[in-house]
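Work Package 3 committed the consortium to producing structural models of liganded targets before the mid-term review. Because experimental data for this complex are still outstanding, the team generated a predictive model from sequence and the ligand definition alone, so that downstream docking and mutagenesis planning could proceed in parallel. The input record is reproduced below exactly as it was submitted to the modelling pipeline, together with the SMILES string for S-adenosylmethionine.
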Amino acid sequence: MDWHARFSQQAGWTRSLRDYIFDAIDLRRAGRILEVGCGTGALLAELPSQAAVHGLDLEPARLTEARLHAPRALLTNGDASCLPFPAQTFDITFCHFLLLWVKYPPDVLCEMRRVTRPGGFVLALAEPDYSRRVDKPKAFAPLGRWQSESLWRQGADPTVGGRLAGLFAEAGITLLETGSLRGVGTHPLTPEERELEWVVLEADLAGFVTARKLQRIKKLDEEAWRRGERVLHVPTYYAWGRV
Ligand SMILES: C[S@@+](CC[C@H](N)C(=O)[O-])C[C@H]1O[C@@H](n2cnc3c(N)ncnc32)[C@H](O)[C@@H]1O
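The resulting structure, written out as tokens with the ligand in place, is given here.
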């Protein structure tokens, strides 16, 4: 699995949201910015050059890749629920497809609030809710159910997106805006996007659904996309607020 390709695809889904929020919070004037759970650096690489850009991730292998893709970023290996930074260090702290993977999201948001200066901003840019995934025609509904079950088994909470606003309140962050992303899988996926979706699905469902069964559904899926009959939508939410 090429994780950087996957994370770059996801970063593409939130590009217009980032443009809008980064503009609203005047990110270009920020001095210090932190991405928690930065992965391979897909977002870090795009941040303005005047700021001190920090990235933190639990997995050293992800940081090795981030070093290549975002060479300017200051990278730290650490746990989001216990950030190794003093209080009030950053102007802006954000995450992107992180909270579904952590054990207790309120702890992570509390930590993001703690390390952000008063008047600074905390952003959760994208968290899915797979329990509300839409698959049409109906024959493809099991895919969403299987993927949710597989994410639960991997220790993720695939429903966290729908609870973001409440989680911000719980963490003591003043919510300024929340909503759902437009266009995540709602547009017809390109053949490359479809292939990548299947690589992720096959990795998620390995050992859970037989390869033969998956290949059969994949073929039907490809035909349905080609006929213009396929709908796939994973509601994905964002929230941002002030400290
Ligand atoms: C889906 S990836 C997203 C990466 C990046 N934010 C992006 O969107 O390109 C989630 C990342 O969170 C990291 N992660 C998961 N749990 C973490 C934790 N408790 N502390 C720090 N990072 C964590 C994973 O290692 C992974 O790199």
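Reviewers should note the following from the model. The CA atoms of residues 221 and 230 lie 7 Å apart. These observations will guide the Year 2 experiments.
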